[in-house]
């Protein structure tokens, strides 16, 4: 399934949320969708059962951690969850590479490319979040304000 085709199937409750503006989140949801099909194929081989379970958990963790981090109020907190997502993206890429004998080189190369794109986006986002803070504006209370 191509990205544009998949986009049409995403519910508006998700796409209307401000989280949807995070490109890494969109791609993470998409790769998890692709992963469902890949894991289904992997589970036909007993040797791949453990790997397929680990792969699907890691794939699901990417978007879940981005979503949780996005909802945090401080940049350091957001960065921490984005780092978890980064770890899961790298883990997923690793599991995909290990499944190349069953899924085939073409599928693996496309998945690794997609996961690498997510990794690059997170590597740019994380340092920016570490320095981001929510700052309150100073209220002026008149003559009693020092």
Describe the fold and architecture.
73% of the residues lie in helices and 0% in strands. By secondary structure, it is an all-alpha fold. It has a single domain, classed as Up-down Bundle (de novo design (two linked rop proteins)). It is globular, with a radius of gyration of 19 Å. The model has no long low-confidence stretch (mean pLDDT 92).
CATH superfamily: 23S rRNA-intervening sequence
Domain module tally: 1
Count every helix, treating DSSP H or I runs of 4 or more residues as helices.
7
Instruction: Determine and state the CATH class.
Output: Mainly Alpha
Shape: globular
- How large is the share of residues in beta strands? under 5%
**N-to-C order of helices and strands:** HHHHHHH
Essential attributes:
146 residues, de novo design (two linked rop proteins), mainly alpha
Structural topology:
Blueprint: H1 3-7, H2 12-15, H3 23-42, H4 49-70, H5 75-98, H6 100-103, H7 105-131
Helix pairs in contact: 3-4, 3-7, 4-5, 5-7
Short description:
The chain has seven helices and no strands. The chain is mostly helical and 146 residues long.
């Amino acid at each position: 399934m191509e990205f544009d085709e998949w986009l049409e199937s995403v519910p508006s409750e998700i796409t209307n949320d401000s989280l949807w503006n995070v490109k890494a989140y969109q791609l993470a949801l998409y790769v998890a969708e692709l992963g469902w099909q890949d894991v289904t194929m992997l589970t036909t081989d007993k040797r791949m059962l453990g790997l397929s379970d680990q792969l699907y958990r890691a794939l699901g963790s990417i978007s879940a951690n981005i979503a949780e981090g996005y909802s945090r109020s401080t940049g350091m907190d957001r960065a921490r969850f984005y780092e978890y997502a980064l770890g899961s993206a790298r883990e997923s890429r690793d599991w995909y590479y290990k499944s190349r004998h069953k899924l085939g080189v073409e599928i693996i190369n496309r998945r690794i490319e997609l996961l690498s794109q997510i990794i690059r986006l997170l590597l740019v986002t994380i340092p920016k979040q570490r320095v981001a803070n929510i700052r309150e504006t100073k209220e002026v209370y008149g003559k009693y304000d020092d």
